[in-house]
Amino acid sequence: MARTRLRSALSSWTLVVPLLALVVLALTWGRDLGVLPVILVALLLGGAVLAAVHHAEVVAHRVGEPFGSLILAVAVTVIEVALIVTLMVSGGEETATLARDTVFAALMITVNGIAGISLLVGALRYGTTLFNAEGSGAALATVATLAALSLVLPSFTTSHPGPEFSGSQLTFAALASLALWGMFVFTQTVRHRDFFLPVTPEGEPDETEEHAAPPSARAALISLALLVVALVAVVGLAKVESPAIEAGVRSVGFPPSFVGVVIALLVLAPETLAAVRAALRQRIQISLNLAFGSAMASIGLTIPAIALAGIWLDGPLVLGLEPTQTVLLLLTIVVSALTIVPGRATRLQGGVHLVLLAAFLFLAVNP
């Protein structure tokens, strides 16, 4: 009985915090905040991140993998895309590179950050991490193709001056991105679902559940609704905190573009925590599903959304990466391929990915 009451008390905060965060978001949106409100928003932001992870895991337990990690990746990305489009509509020409910078930051954080820390944590606890090279390799190939089509090619096309697509080229990139993302989701959830399940030490798909009984359908639906609420709160409160973050960035002498990196880190915090917790349970495949799935959804959904929003947007839309960013992207793809091919990794591979993330962050501060 005492254990039941303790479990109920621990789970109740996951209901209260997202709703409270949403109320505070409505009260603080578009206002200048003092020191105490900024601290309150920061605390609720952290609580909403933890609540999002909890509800994502409840939903994942109900629907099983890889659907669970797909739900979290898509939910975060849809809200992230909405935030990008909103900022671009209201920002004018000053936001010409916002979509590129945000998508690239999300790509580096997911493929190097989420995957790297998951591999490192898993290897530190279990010595060697095991995953399905076929599924992870297919995900990485899709991410690489999406990144090249949407972020690299604009710097080399000649129909439009500058690192921009022409209207027809942007339409093609948007349709290709949607097609690739759709084909991957079908492969992951229907045709070759076993490629994206955790593997046993013998290399076989592991479909065993981690808990005795999955939650009821009602509990899963409630958690799904609260997951959406928590993610809206995470992204919204991150936007509310952005003036304070921007002031902090200026005070330490960082370039203004680093604000986007900080916000991307906050928005991706739920997926990062969920991936690390999966790695600690020796289910590194779930961590990689989250990392590559988030990177894929970030590109595959953002570019079509931006292309559609281009009907109302004024000013240029710069998608082509700068030379330094292109080098980091190519190095990330090569290193990721070498990590994935063996189907197992040690702490060294995790460390290499984290060094690449550190290089990205350092160059974002000191370009």
The 3D shape can be described as globular
Q: CATH superfamily, please? A: NCX, central ion-binding region
**What oligomeric state is this?**
single chain
CATH class, please?
Mainly Alpha
- The ordered string of helix (H) and strand (E) elements is HHHHEHHHHHHHEH
Q: Low-confidence runs (pLDDT<50, min 5 residues)?
A: none
What structural category characterises the helix and strand content? mainly alpha
Strand elements, count: 2
Helix content: over 70%
Radius of gyration: 20 Å
Pfam families: Na_Ca_ex
Subcellular location: Membrane
Main location: membrane
Keywords: Membrane, Transmembrane, Transmembrane helix
Summarize the structure.
The chain is mainly α and 367 residues long. The protein has one domain (12-365): NCX, central ion-binding region (A middle domain of Talin 1, Up-down Bundle). The protein has helices spanning 2-28, 35-63, 67-91, 98-126, 133-152, 167-191, 217-251, 258-267, 269-280, 284-309, 323-340, 347-365; strands at 129-130, 344-345.
Could you explain how this protein is built, in words?
With 367 residues, this protein is mainly α. The chain has one domain (12-365): NCX, central ion-binding region (A middle domain of Talin 1). The protein is built from twelve helices and two strands, in the order ααααβαααααααβα. A two-stranded antiparallel sheet has the order 1-2. Helix 9 (269-280) runs antiparallel to helix 10. It is globular. The mean pLDDT is 82.
